[in-house]
UniProtKB/TrEMBL annotation:
The keyword Signal does not apply. It catalyses: ATP + protein L-histidine = ADP + protein N-phospho-L-histidine. One of its GO terms (molecular function) is ATP binding. It is an enzyme of class 2 (transferase). InterPro entries: 7TMR_DISM_rcpt_extracell_dom1, BphY/WalK/GraS-like, Galactose-bd-like_sf, HATPase_C_sf, HATPase_dom, His_kinase_dom, HisK_dim/P_dom, HisK_dim/P_sf. It is found in: Cell membrane. Residues 476-699 form the Histidine kinase domain. It comes from Cohnella lupini. The lineage of its organism: Bacteria, Bacillati, Bacillota, Bacilli, Bacillales. This is histidine kinase.
Length: 705
């Protein structure tokens, strides 16, 4: 399965590479075609005259009327006779007023009134000639040889009578003479930029008509693609509401399409004739802001780990503020604040780029495709900002950038569908395999259930034993506390009532009471220590000591004392390699273990008996075994299972004088287990009892051969 999945991924990557090469080839071919057109030497206007007499319309095609036009700039009106005062000069075309200076060095304002004049020298033309006019800010009137042939909006020297309107247009006329005079009056009091932003094109009627058709078709195709893809993702969101990214991508496509329909060829303005220029401009800026907001929201929904939701909230607030500005202020004002709108788009675009770079580094699904597509879109956004600010002569490319992003997004969708289908195929194969082995799995599961039932039965038995032990524990504690307390109470009452009046007898009684109190103290201390050990709240002070050193310590502690009790004691190490072994133990707590074991052995070993400690290391299990043996009376076989329980005593009479608290062996067991070892007991075949302790040896005791 893994091999097939790997082959499938490689197959997808190969086809993706082919697709990218294909797109690059198209872009390269388009660039070559454009460069071949650009290699032509085009005529340029000088001092208001452009000479086209040597230009071949059939070979050279259309001509942009670029260069220096004659230009009359309205300075002020003469109050005495009501006439207006103009500065007669030249001006570069294309270019916006605020970024240009006249031939006389005058810096122009973007709001004002100007008259462009150009004399076109050409051969007599049998066919009609056409002029293609772009969007000119924001009202203009074109005259050819003194006749007004086209007007957009209403031009006037004053702002009050000027009515803005922007749409490209084509004018057709005959050129019977060899000189054609063009006069273009432009007025702008409503937009941040006035003047002619892009080139005016001149050519024969067929050429200009083809140019216009090509531009309109290109814009309609892209607009149609944006609308269709927008509604497609809207449908995806309706079918699956959890995928918020779909509605955001739909809004991105629709708002970019809306802005595209309001500028350029202005299809929406032509379609909705009731839209005036002010309303269309407001809608254009709102669509600009909303497309940025929707794009950021789309990528935030796609990559929420890399682009935090906090940034989406910030983006929403800023977008809302910008839209309120558009709705409240006049176009002249909010278009002059274009830097705020562009900064919003640029800043959040950079945030998306950073998030996509991190996503690609983390190998998120489709992140590289999204990064490539969005990088292309950002480049077109920068191009359009330079173009609309008048800093760069170009065309509106954002729709093309978005179309490129859509292509990348389609690759992401295809990739996801492919991965989904692959997972479905793998799951289908696993289901088939599961069905084929179902009987075996059922048998295995039945066996597991039977083992579980057995475990539950054992647990039930253990719980019953624990409950019995608990009841026994309570009974034992009550007995072991009540007996000395009753005795102490009796002694105290006897002392109080002067039943014991002789000084010697009183001293003896007080000593007995002191012994009982010490016994109670010892019992309480043992109970506390046992509870702490069982809760595993003890931190061991482990020391790495040699086995021979431990042997000497035990010999020193017990040899002399046991000899005084007429009991033979020895501690030895068995085996040649055992003498070199080391062990990690808490020495103080292990002393407590051996004190319990040895004094228990002393209790049941008569004078003349023997107690022996034998130590040996086992290389196979990497452990150390310690045996404490005696030749006393041994342990009742019925008592062996309960030997390490709390309050268990071999002495069934439970007289305090004949046995300890019954907690010593339980404490010893907890200490040994806390060391990672185990302890058990059995009777020797030679008589007497054997307590066996197995502890893990130090890691460096058994080097590999």
């Amino acid at each position: 399965m893994a091999r097939l999945a790997s082959k499938s991924r490689k197959h997808r990557q190969r086809w993706f590479g082919v697709a990218l090469v294909f797109l690059a080839f198209i872009a390269f071919s388009t660039g070559c075609a454009a460069s071949s057109k650009a290699d032509r030497v085009l005529p340029v206007a000088e001092q208001g005259i452009i000479d086209l007499r040597g230009w071949s319309w059939n070979d050279g095609g259309v001509v942009p009327l670029n260069g220096k036009w004659k230009f009359d700039w309205l300075l002020a009106s003469n109050g005495a006779n009501g006439r207006f005062q103009y500065e007669e000069t030249t001006l570069e075309v294309p270019g916006t007023w605020g970024n240009l200076m006249t031939g006389k060095g005058t810096k122009l304002d973007d709001q004002g009134y100007g008259v462009y004049r150009l004399s076109v020298l050409h051969e007599k033309q049998r066919d009609m000639i056409a002029i293609r006019l772009p969007n000119i800010s924001t009202a203009y009137e074109l005259s050819i040889d003194g006749n007004v042939v086209l007007a957009r909006g209403q031009v006037s020297e004053g702002a009050e009578r000027t009515i803005p309107y922007q749409l490209p247009a084509t004018v057709y006329f005959t050129a019977d003479n060899t000189r054609t005079e063009l006069e273009l009056i432009v007025a702008n009091y409503d937009h941040r930029h006035g003047g002619i932003r892009t080139a005016i094109i001149l050519g024969n009627a067929d050429q200009v008509q083809r140019l216009q058709t090509r531009q309109e078709a290109q814009e309609l195709i892209i607009l149609g693609c944006l609308i269709m893809i927008g509604f497609y993702h809207l449908g995806l969101y309706i079918l699956r509401r959890k995928e918020v990214a779909n509605i955001m991508f739909a809004m991105l496509c629709l708002f970019v399409g809306m802005r595209m329909g309001l500028i350029g060829e202005g299809f929406i303005v032509q379609w909705l004739e009731f839209l005036n220029w002010n309303t269309a401009t407001c809608l254009e800026y709102i669509a600009f802001v909303m497309s940025g907001w929707a794009g950021f929201a789309y990528f935030q929904a796609m990559y929420p780990r890399e682009i935090k939701r906090m940034w989406f909230k910030v983006s929403t607030v800023v977008a809302a503020v910008l839209i309120v500005v558009v709705l409240v202020f006049q176009p002249l004002h909010f278009t002059s604040w274009i830097i705020a709108f562009q900064s919003y788009i640029i800043l959040f675009s950079l945030k998306v780029l950073a998030g996509l770079i991190v996503s690609a580094h983390r190998r998120r699904e489709g992140a590289w495709l999204a990064l490539i597509g969005f990088a292309g879109l950002v480049l077109t956004i920068v191009n359009d900002m330079l173009f609309y600010n008048g800093w760069f002569t170009s065309v509106d490319l954002v729709p093309f950038g978005l179309l490129f992003l859509i292509v990348m997004n389609s690759f992401i969708i295809s990739l996801r569908f492919s991965v989904t289908y692959e997972k479905a195929e793998n799951m289908s194969a696993e289901l088939i395999e599961l069905n084929n082995t179902l009987e075996e799995r059922i048998a295995e599961r039945t066996e597991e259930l039977q083992r579980s039932y057995a475990t539950l039965a054992d647990a039930k038995t253990e719980l019953e034993r624990v409950e019995h032990s608990r009841a026994q524990l309570v009974s034992n504690i009550s007995h072991d506390l009540r007996t000395p307390i009753t005795l102490l109470k009796g002694y105290l009452e006897a002392l109080r009532d002067n039943v014991i009046s002789e000084p010697a007898q009183r001293d003896k009684t007080i000593k007995l009471m002191s012994a009982k109190v010490e016994g109670l103290n010892s019992l309480i201390q043992d109970l506390f220590e046992l509870s702490v050990l069982e809760a595993r709240k003890v931190e061991l002070a482990l020391e790495d000591i040699p086995l021979i050193g431990w042997k000497e310590r035990l010999t020193e502690q017990y040899a002399i004392e046991l000899q005084g009790k007429e009991i033979e004691f020895d501690c030895l190490i068995s085996g040649e390699t055992s003498a070199l072994a080391r062990i990690k133990i808490d020495v103080r707590r292990m002393d407590r273990v051996f004190a319990n074991l040895i004094y228990n052995a002393v209790r049941y070993t008569p004078a003349g008996g023997r107690i022996r400690i034998t130590m040996r290391s086992e290389s196979r299990n990497e452990s150390v075994e310690v045996l404490v043996t005696d030749n006393g009376s041994g342990i009742d076989p019925d008592d062996l299972p309960f030997l390490f329980d709390r309050f268990f005593r071999k002495d069934k009479t439970r007289q305090q004088s004949s046995a300890g608290s019954g907690l010593g062996l339980a404490i010893a067991k907890e200490i040994v287990e806390l060391h990672g070892g185990r302890i058990d007991a059995y009777n020797s075949t030679d008589g007497g009892s054997v307590f066996r302790i197995v502890l893990p040896a130090s890691a460096n005791d058994f080097p590999s051969s």
